[in-house]
Amino acid sequence: MSAARQPVAVAVGLMLRPDGSFLLASRPPGKPYAGYWEFPGGKIEPGESLLHALAREFDEELGVTVRAAHYWRSLRVDYPHALVDLQFCRITAWDGQPRGREGQELSWQTLPVRVGPILPGALPVLDWLAQQRGAAGAPGQCADGGDGGSSPDAASSASSGGVAGTR
Q1: CB 39 within 8 A of CB 25
Q2: Does any domain span residue 16?
Q3: Half-sphere exposure of 55 toward its Cβ, with a 13 Å CA cutoff?
């Protein structure tokens, strides 16, 4: 029997343009799932807040300064190489033009996405975005009229790793 793995907290950002497009990045060579597409982000360092980690990662990885962001939803993903707690933030204002500073490709996408393969942890996010797009009300609202608070969401599963989410 193996010891329980400790989850790694990860700040993830959805850069959202007014037209509804969002930024995806390919995982760079040398990392697990290299070439898979994901929403950009990275590990939250000890003592660092979610929004500080998000701003640091977007500066380091993309060369942009995050000006407006807020927590949206969380998702735990059990990959073969790591158990991760993905904390998604919606980014609605930034300075600079995103560019891959770590060898990753970048692509502005709308639903359905035209790039692939998609990292398993990003698949539920695409479903959430599709649900929001189909919801009545102002852009940026959830189907329940909220902003994606913290009520429990049904657990789901994605290929190559178990996924459980909350919203």
Answers
A1: yes
A2: yes
A3: 14
Q: Using one digit for the tens of pLDDT, what is the confidence trace for 122-139?
A: 999 999 999 998 863 333
3-state secondary structure of 134: helix
Q: Is the dihedral of CA 123, 128, 129, 131 positive or negative?
A: positive
Quick check: helix, strand or coil at residue 29?
coil
Q: Structure pTM?
A: 0.80
pLDDT digits 0-9 by tens, 38-76: 999 999 999 999 999 999 999 999 999 999 999 999 999
Q: What is the CATH number of the domain that holds 139?
A: 3.90.79.10
Strand pairing report for 41-43 and 65-78:
unpaired
| 119 closest CA partner among 149, 80, 150 | 80
DSSP-derived secondary structure letter, 118: B
CA 162, CA 164: separation in Å to the nearest integer?
7
